[in-house]
Target: tRNA 2-selenouridine synthase
Amino acid sequence: MRQVSYKEILKEKNYILIDVRTPKEYAAETIPGSVNIPVLLDNERVEVGTAYKQVSKEKAKELGIEFISKRLPEVFQEINNLDKKHKKLIFLCARGGMRSSSMTALFSSLGYKCSKLTDGYKGYRKFISEDLERVNSGIKYIVLHGRTGVGKTKILQQLENKGYSVLDLEKYADHKGSIFGAIGEKRKQSQKRFESLIYEHLRENHHNYVLVESESKRIGDVYLPDTISESMKSGLHLFLDTSLDHRVKILMEDYADASEEAILNCIDFLKKYIGKEKTESYSELTKSNNYAQLAGELVVDYYDPLYEKSIKKWEFESIVNYENVDEGVQGIINFLDTKDFS
Model:
């Protein structure tokens, strides 16, 4: 049976990674770009595991074969479709054990050109943890600072759409980086997925710089890898500034789909920082749908004072003032045009 390490995979072209773990395992964390064709479904894996512990290894194997055999026609069709689009099929599971081995053996016997990922997802994690510093070396970080609501994320998105090199940490973290940062996010945060997305982005980056939003070490419940955090500290720092009215407008857009319950939960969390009186005031503004006033008061009374304390440690290459996001984007472009990142 042919095995291939992730390092070797990076030299390959036109391959597809097939994650044969359960849908739950795959959703939690996987190798970016892989597809999920599970050997066992979530409930089936529980049953097989129970049989292994309580009955015997043989009974567990018997159950596993019974479960997968029912879906073999469907699995075969999915694999066949992938084989038409890719020259190589690479199966992976948690540790490169029975699940990926059985799929590799089966489809190899049917004449497909396929391999098994050495040590599975665990091997991949070990490799990228060791290789992250290498792919990050030589990249100059351009860090965008600014008070809450200035639109740093919107500006980065537009710059990325225009072809500039952007590392969107908040997108990869599934969190906006504040008390209200989890509102509207569809996935649960995952440290492993966060690190994988950063690694793959930097590995595929064809520029000697990246634009990134200023972040603390922690974004929600995930943490920046040390090498990224240090590169951001030693990067070029820009300060973005716009009017309070524009900041409120941006916040209204960012949280337009937020539920009243979600906002009230965040305000309740702030109670220990802002006191009972302001908590009640903010809650009343929320319940009366007066979100513009709520946003304005939060940034002026809570976020801006916090930001003023943290911003003193930075020296800025330039200050970009703007009245709308397009002007902010152009301000960043004007700065980039003065630099040579070759």
The first strand starts at residue 3 and ends at 4. The chain is about 55% helix and 15% strand.
